[in-house]
Amino acid sequence: MTDFGITPNQRRFVLLAAFLALVFDGVELGLMPIASMSVSKDLLGDAYTDKLGGVWFARFTAALMLGAAIGGIALGNLGDRIGRTRAMGVCILIYSVFAALGAFVETQQQMLVLRFLVGLGVGGLWPNGVALVAECWPKTSRPFVSGATMAGLNFGILLLSQFAQHWPITTDSWRWLFQIAGLPAVLGVVVLLFLPESPKWLESRGSSKKKSSPLFDLFQPSLIRCTLVGVAVSAIPMIGAWSASKWMIPWADTVAGATNLTYKAATQGWWALGATLGSFIGAQVAGWFGKRISYFVISLATLIITVAMFQWTEPLQPSFHPVVFAQGFIATLFFGWLALFLPELFPVRVRATGSGLAYNSGRFATAAGVLASGAIFSWFGGSFPRVGAICASIYSLGMVVIWLAPEATESQET
């Protein structure tokens, strides 16, 4: 028996494939925060300093964010043109192949280019995955499946941290990590060959007489407010996550790395555990309390806990990992919220493009924000607590912009 043109088993297959794709997406996102200092020490040799390592961490992050921003828009658009599943498969292959090539780099500049190319696939995967899941599951199930899908992203970071605790990432041993990051290419092939397409996308393509570009449609009077609101509410948590909170991991590596090789992996593991739970629950919170109120409270709470992480504790203190866990949980409530909110803003014909544009436009600002945070880092003499606390102020904007968003959104099916 089918439901909306797709069987229950096919729906489960779609959810599993999207979950696994985002797990590996999370591995790519978590790879450089945990490995960048070791990579830089090896490739820079005698020229390496902790301050220079922090600057290169910012550059690697900015390259990934810039690639993800471009990929999220361009490959999100691809999903509205050729189908969600084919676009998903292409994105998985892109981030897998270019990540694996990182095992063979000889210079920082080569790694920088590869992180940009990895970002193309990372950015394009999210809008196509969440659009496919939203269109294959009934509306009553969407808070749960949206949360489960987004939990996959941070579960990937958690999985990576567990690997790194058992096999430490050091100056002499980091290339294996990039080799493992290429394995999801197998999933990309499976998605291309076997994953069912969204029946709602197929219907919209068969019935639509309008041939204009999905990207062009997003800036027409009927959709421009949705587009601008989506960009605003996506950009704030994205900028905050990468220009502020991610500094905790190189900070932990710098403080504890000489005496405890696995401390940075444990730090990322505690954060990712909290983030996995937070990204799952975020969609439920939005459903329970309403989108405006929940986003406002999440913004306030994330501001407080991020400042606390950088100013009230530090690596190797007993309180550090519990605060890191709490920050991961609270800060990633945003992303479960977005997985529920963004697909409902846009009609099917432009859903992947709209979600991709909204979610990934913030990454352009994030790339600039990360580079700015790198400059702030240098300006304050390599102080991780200062740069983290200053950049956390971005979350205060979330308490303002959310009132521009509609309280209720409805999934538009045409």
Description:
The structure is a single chain. By secondary structure, the protein is mostly helical. The protein has one domain: MFS general substrate transporter like domains (Growth Hormone, Chain: A), CATH 1.20.1250.20. It is globular, with a radius of gyration of 20 Å.
Query: Counting H and I runs of at least 4 residues, what is the number of helices?
Result: 18
Multimeric state of these chains? single chain
Mean pLDDT: 85
What's the SSE pattern? Answer: HHHHHHHHHHHHHHHHHH
CATH topology: Growth Hormone, Chain: A
Largest sheet: none
Keywords, separated by commas or semicolons:
mainly alpha; Growth Hormone, Chain: A; 18 helices; 0% strand; 414 residues
Q: What is the strand and helix layout of this fold?
A:
Blueprint: H1 8-44, H2 50-82, H3 84-101, H4 108-136, H5 142-166, H6 175-180, H7 185-194, H8 199-207, H9 214-217, H10 224-243, H11 248-256, H12 263-289, H13 291-311, H14 320-331, H15 333-345, H16 351-379, H17 384-391, H18 395-401
Helix pairs in contact: 1-2, 1-3, 1-4, 1-5, 1-11, 2-3, 2-4, 2-16, 3-4, 3-7, 4-5, 4-16, 5-12, 5-15, 10-15, 10-16, 10-18, 11-12, 12-13, 12-14, 12-15, 13-14, 13-15, 13-17, 13-18, 15-16, 16-17
Summarize the structure.
The protein has 18 helices and no strands. The protein is mostly helical and 414 residues long. It has one domain: MFS general substrate transporter like domains (Growth Hormone, Chain: A, Up-down Bundle).
